[in-house]
Amino acid sequence: MSIIRSFVFWIFLYLSIALLVILYFPFAFFIKRKTFADECAKFWSMVVFWLLRFVLKINYKVVGLNNLPKGASIIACKHHSMWETVIFHLLCKHPAYVYKKELLNVPFYGWYVNKMSGVKVDRSGGASALKDLIKQAKNFIATGHNIIIFPQGTRVPPEASVEQYPYQVGIAALYLACGVDVVPVALNSGNFWGKSMWIKKTGCVTIEFLEPIKPGLSKLDFMTKLAEKIEVHSSELRRKI
Q: Can you point out the beta strands (E) in 122-181?
């Protein structure tokens, strides 16, 4: 049954993406593009979570949302799957994801991503790419956005160690340069929708917003505290299932 449910889910997921691109195209030329693209992303996120709930029987629970500041902030989230690349459209008013520049090369989807509020990063660009990352993030923070970043830079298997997937320098650069709270986020989405997991498992994903890390720490202290918070709480959530 899980195989059939997963197959049906993937069919409708890709159909929803195609339909969104088709419906968006006529409006893209005369409506404020970023605003409209962001609203489309929120609507599509609702569709995705409807499919997850009614097709795959995957629900979710949010813990500690009161830890999210009212204004702009940086959200540093554990990254197991596609699940967390969607959820913040529903939990945050103005999310701006940090995403790899290579996504812009994906036909149609990349064109749409380029119109959304987002911070693109060239992972092979070195110091200049880091400066550009900070510049883009500051612009979004100035307009009240939440910057969403996956500090390990890629999807990570639930059981993987920090040594295997270290926290990247980009999150430290944003913390030191932007002067806003960094909110660590733990989750257990990998137990149900993991990296390269074509067949999904039923259950309830828990996403937990932890106490914000205030500006003022050194780079080393910040990175240590961030990794400890996310790893400890993500491990606890994984074991509770």
A: 146-149
